User: Which sequence fits this backbone?
């Protein structure tokens, strides 16, 4: 059977090449996703400012949320990451110094600092400068002095104004340095006054094993600290970059699994087409005594050989694709450029295994009918296949339809807000599987619908083409299926993102009433700025504006996910006038001190009422008991709690509010306040909108990769299908048809394939988009411009026509008699 398999591949190059291409691109995509996952797991961030430390100790930023039953060891808890900088106790340095093998301990005190007229940078104590590969000229700073970057344009001895937490102080430049990051160094006394201890560099004694030292430090400090070594040390300098690693892991896992499923469908379609084109030879093999098992082994052998060759060829390109994807993610702010891309042998092996699995699953589906058909029936069906519905197809199609329907019901009745999109990917896959299994029947229905309009508009070529579609419905379904998959995935993925972004944007902005927003040009507002704003003529209300994320510690909040609870810091005296939140109980004027206004849904989940205590873990890890002073009605899925701006700001990295909301009849008058930039209220939503657009862009990029893959399968399948009809085209020409007439007939068939594929793709996407749109926006139709649908449909139509007409033109070049007599 091996010899027969090799000979079959030799003489069936078209099917071999088509299957090879499908497996090659599928393996490359899975390998690329594996590279992204390995990069996220490794989180290799080479240190810069702390490169001289053998180990860096930081406070642990990830933690386990509270459980409903703390005594139940079997109950799982959500693992979350703190969004703000987490300070450490100064006494930690003494514990580290006492560990054997530690030669030197270097505390790193950090804070945000702004040189007036320049972007915000980070300030540090000068004692940590010894850990960086800096070139510093001048002297170490004394109290009231600072070391700036050479690129600042300042000279030693210059007087400069530097703002820290909204307060501007005068400093003398004592030194200049070349820094890889925007930093400035202060004296130890000034740093302790202005900042907090956020990292500790550890220099090991000569001959100390770093791994052993890491274990000893971890044991001495306990679970509340992370001891970073190697490329992990960079996470202390770039904590926000380190957080993106989890996103990379999630993205790679989701889209890698999605790619595997799509690859299975594409390869099954391509391999199935190749097997159908060989029904005559398989029928002859069965007639001369070949057993079903031998036929299956032959097909499996072919699939194995092709998949091994394809995955071997995809090994290097898969790494290139992964690197290209990571570069795009880094350039668009999804992953920090400081992270190093890694793709070892494990992602490549996983990709190869996925391609092999896809090939074997496809081979099982393709060989089953050919191997189980009786020889006499196979010979009778070898010319034109008419039977297609089997119990296998029917059962799995019903299961897929049932799964899609169940997800639709869950989406509409259970899912809320942004999490409703989590069912979109599985739903579109289930509907795609169902329609693929039933594609011959669905294609027959679509052709029946468009048959008369096409005949009326295209005359003789259309009549001939529609007659072909009626006879060759099973073969035609092989061409319609990839068009259906490509358009269906494109419609579902794109409109899911446009609807998600619009839904989130509306929920975020609908509660804002500000006429203008003041933005600090000094890195933050001091407390006296708000009072100055209220005295400006025309101002009727003003409130500081701070955003962060918190986590309910007690009582247990069953509605809280691993992302925590969004927090907005406002000023009590202006909150009611500047926000239009619906108050269920209490009043926002009580938002002073350690208080909170909770979303009513969360309050119900916790069983708390006005006046009750709620322990909140803020973004810097500090747990603060707060008193509930109001309950607010929030849109499901977009719940936000309100807290005093001063309370929230004190638990953020910045330490102060950077924006002030204002209601005023004369926004221009606000320009008289020093250190502010006046903007409209859209500024409040810019960061949130940018975050939403970034999330959407991620999905556009990775979904576009899947869509491109299915588009390649469209071309792949149609080229093979059309090239296999050379004998048919030759017979038509021998019977009197001219080359142009045959070409026009093929063009009409291509048009029919495109219309049927796009129509079925629309139905597939509707099974996903309608329930999602109802859950997210209470609308049957998704949000997004109609040109997206037209562009996708147009691209699918152009691809289909090109992949049909170009092979037809080449097939018509030889003499008709040569194509009819060719083997």
Assistant:
């Amino acid at each position: 059977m091996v010899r027969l398999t090799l000979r079959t591949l030799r003489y069936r190059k078209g099917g071999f090449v088509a299957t090879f291409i499908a497996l090659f691109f599928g393996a490359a995509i899975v390998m690329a996703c594996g590279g992204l996952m390995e990069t996220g797991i490794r989180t290799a961030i080479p240190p810069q400012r702390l490169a001289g430390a053998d180990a860096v100790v930081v406070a642990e930023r990830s933690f386990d949320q509270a459980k409903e039953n703390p005594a139940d060891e079997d109950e799982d808890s959500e693992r979350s990451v703190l969004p703000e900088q987490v300070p450490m106790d100064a006494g930690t340095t003494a514990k580290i110094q006492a560990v054997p093998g530690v030669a030197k301990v270097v505390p790193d005190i950090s804070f945000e600092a702004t040189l007036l007229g320049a972007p915000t940078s980070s300030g540090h104590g000068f004692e940590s400068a010894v850990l960086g590969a800096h070139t510093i000229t001048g002297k170490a700073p004394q109290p009231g002095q600072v070391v700036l970057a050479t690129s600042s344009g300042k000279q030693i001895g210059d007087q400069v104004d530097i703002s820290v937490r909204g307060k501007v102080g005068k400093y003398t430049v004592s030194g200049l340095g070349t820094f890889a990051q925007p930093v400035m160094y202060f004296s130890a006394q000034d740093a302790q006054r202005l900042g907090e201890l956020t990292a500790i560099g550890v220099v090991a004694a000569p001959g100390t094993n770093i791994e052993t030292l890491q274990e000893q430090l971890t044991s001495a400090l306990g679970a509340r600290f992370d001891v970073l070594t190697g490329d992990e040390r960079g996470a202390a300098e770039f904590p926000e970059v380190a957080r993106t690693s989890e996103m990379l892991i999630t993205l790679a896992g989701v889209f890698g699994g999605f790619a595997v499923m799509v690859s299975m469908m594409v390869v099954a379609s391509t391999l199935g087409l190749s097997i159908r084109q060989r029904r005559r030879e398989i029928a002859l093999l069965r007639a001369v005594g070949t057993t079903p098992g031998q036929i299956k082994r032959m097909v499996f052998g072919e699939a194995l050989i092709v998949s091994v060759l394809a995955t071997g060829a995809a090994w290097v390109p898969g790494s290139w694709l992964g690197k290209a994807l990571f570069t795009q993610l880094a350039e668009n702010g999804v992953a920090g450029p400081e992270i190093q891309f890694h793709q070892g042998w494990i992602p490549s092996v996983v990709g190869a295994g996925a391609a092999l699995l896809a090939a074997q699953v496809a081979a099982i589906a393709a060989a089953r009918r050919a191997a189980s058909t009786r020889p006499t029936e196979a010979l009778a069906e070898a010319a034109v296949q008419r039977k297609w519905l089997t119990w296998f197809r029917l059962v799995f199609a019903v299961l897929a339809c049932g799964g899609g329907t169940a997800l639709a019901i869950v989406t509409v009745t259970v899912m809320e807000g942004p999490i409703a999109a989590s069912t979109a990917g599985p739903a579109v896959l289930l509907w795609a599987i169902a329609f693929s299994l039933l594609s011959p029947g669905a294609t027959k229905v679509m052709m029946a619908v468009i048959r008369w309009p096409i005949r009326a508009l295209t005359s003789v070529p259309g009549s001939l083409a529609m007659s072909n579609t009626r006879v060759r419905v099973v073969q035609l379904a092989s061409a319609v299926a990839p068009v259906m998959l490509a358009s269906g995935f494109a419609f579902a993925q794109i409109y899911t993102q446009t609807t998600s972004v619009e839904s989130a944007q509306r929920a975020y902005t609908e509660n804002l009433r500000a006429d203008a927003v003041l933005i600090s040009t000094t890195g933050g507002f001091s407390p006296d700025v708000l009072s100055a704003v209220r005295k400006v003529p025309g101002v009727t209300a003003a409130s500081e504006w701070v955003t962060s994320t918190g986590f309910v510690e007690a009582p247990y909040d069953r509605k809280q996910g691993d992302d925590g609870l969004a927090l907005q810091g406002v000023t009590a005296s202006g909150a009611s006038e500047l926000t239009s939140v619906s108050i269920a109980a209490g009043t926002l004027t009580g938002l002073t001190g350690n208080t909170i206004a909770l979303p009513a849904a969360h309050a119900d989940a916790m069983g708390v009422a006005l006046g009750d205590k709620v322990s909140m873990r803020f973004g810097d890890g500090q747990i603060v008991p707060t008193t509930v002073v109001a309950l607010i009605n929030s849109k499901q899925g977009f719940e936000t709690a309100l807290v005093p701006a001063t309370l929230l700001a004190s638990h953020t990295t910045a330490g102060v509010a950077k924006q002030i909301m204002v209601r005023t009849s004369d926004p221009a008058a606000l320009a008289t306040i020093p250190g502010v930039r006046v903007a409209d209220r859209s500024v409040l939503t810019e960061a949130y909108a940018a975050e939403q657009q970034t999330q959407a862009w991620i999905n556009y990029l990775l979904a576009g990769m899947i869509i491109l893959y299915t588009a390649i399968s469209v071309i792949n399948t149609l080229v093979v299908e059309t090239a296999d009809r050379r004998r048919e085209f030759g017979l038509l020409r021998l019977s009197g048809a001219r080359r142009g007439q045959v070409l026009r007939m093929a063009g009409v068939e291509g048009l029919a394939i495109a219309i049927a594929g796009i129509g079925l793709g629309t139905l597939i996407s509707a099974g996903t988009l309608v329930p999602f749109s109802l859950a997210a926006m209470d609308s049957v139709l998704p949000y997004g411009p109609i040109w997206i649908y037209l562009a996708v449909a147009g691209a699918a139509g152009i691809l289909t026509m090109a992949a049909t007409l170009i092979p037809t033109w080449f097939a018509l070049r030889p003499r008709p008699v040569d194509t009819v007599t060719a083997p």
Remarks:
- The first strand starts at residue 55 and ends at 59.
- The mean pLDDT is 80.
- Residues 1-45+238-383 form one domain.
- The chain has 24 helices and 22 strands.
